[in-house]
């Protein structure tokens, strides 16, 4: 796979030899989330007490330019693991996108994301899972089966949340969300409208649902602490049909 790094207007961009951008970093603010979909992927924060994040484990499947992993580790102060199948992408992130070396709660696993999820050691080890795995052609999500999402469910700790980025030339978002819903059996599922670039972000929470007043207060706190548009996320979520709790899971 061809890995191309370019710069324009203070931004450093990663792509795999196609028109699809795989990640962006603002050179003057390398830990900031630049792409709209990456910002929306952080809407899982609404389900987690900001004071609890330092003790939690976030896993990202698909490294891209490392933005989601860096943000979780360096800004939110979480234990962060990224799983990436292409060694060249890992090398590019370390060389060009200021991804720190492993240690101090950060780990990059060179391997297959589905295999990582299936490992016995992964079971009940993840508080937040971000799924953002694509090939260079970006035809459709690489990891998009009900069985895969069921495996993700077993990887979650109590109260865990999954954020998924859906995009692609052959994307059937409705079918993807149906598979996600069946595999994860979440207590709440938020499907945000497409971004300008066409990304559909889905947040699936598998724990108890915070009351509305807690969500509203938390949205304000997230905006204050990290300058993220959490009140807008909450407004979009309220317009998104929730998933009913599934019996027997």
Structure description:
- It contains 8 helices and 10 strands.
- It has 249 residues and is α/β, with parallel strands linked by helices.
- The protein has one domain: Vaccinia Virus protein VP39 (Rossmann fold), CATH 3.40.50.
- A 7-stranded mixed beta sheet has the order 6-5-4-7-8-10-9, sandwiched between helices. Strands 1-2-3 form a 3-stranded antiparallel beta sheet, with no helix packed on it.
- The radius of gyration is 17 Å and the shape is globular.
- The N and C termini lie far apart (40 Å).
- 42% of the residues are buried.
- The model is unreliable at 243-249 (pLDDT under 50).
Rg over CA atoms, rounded to whole Å, is: 17 Å
Tally the helices: what do you get? 8
Please name the CATH architecture. Answer: 3-Layer(aba) Sandwich
Ends distance: 40 Å
């Amino acid at each position: 796979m061809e890995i191309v790094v370019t710069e324009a207007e203070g931004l450093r961009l990663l792509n795999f030899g196609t028109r699809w951008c795989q990640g962006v970093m603002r050179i003057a603010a390398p830990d900031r989330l630049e792409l709209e979909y990456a910002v929306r992927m952080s809407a899982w924060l609404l389900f987690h007490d900001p004071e609890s994040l330092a003790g939690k484990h976030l896993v990202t499947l698909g490294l891209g330019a490392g933005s989601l992993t860096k943000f979780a580790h360096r800004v939110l102060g979480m234990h962060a693991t990224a799983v990436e199948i292409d060694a060249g992408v890992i090398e590019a992130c370390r060389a060009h996108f200021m991804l720190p070396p492993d240690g101090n709660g950060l780990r990059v696993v060179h391997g297959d994301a589905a295999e990582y999820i299936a490992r016995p050691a992964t079971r009940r080890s993840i508080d937040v899972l971000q799924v953002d795995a694509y090939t260079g052609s970006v035809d459709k999500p690489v990891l998009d089966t009900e069985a895969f999402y069921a495996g993700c469910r077993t990887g979650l700790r109590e109260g865990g949340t999954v954020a998924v980025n859906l995009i692609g030339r052959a994307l059937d978002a409705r079918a993807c969300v149906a598979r996600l819903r069946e595999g994860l059996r979440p207590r709440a599922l938020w499907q945000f409208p497409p971004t300008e670039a066409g990304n559909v972000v889905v947040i699936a929470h598998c724990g108890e649902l915070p009351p509305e007043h807690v969500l509203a207060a938390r949205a304000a706190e997230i905006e204050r602490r990290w300058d993220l548009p959490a009140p807008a996320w909450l407004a979009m979520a309220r317009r998104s049909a929730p998933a009913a709790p599934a019996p027997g899971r």
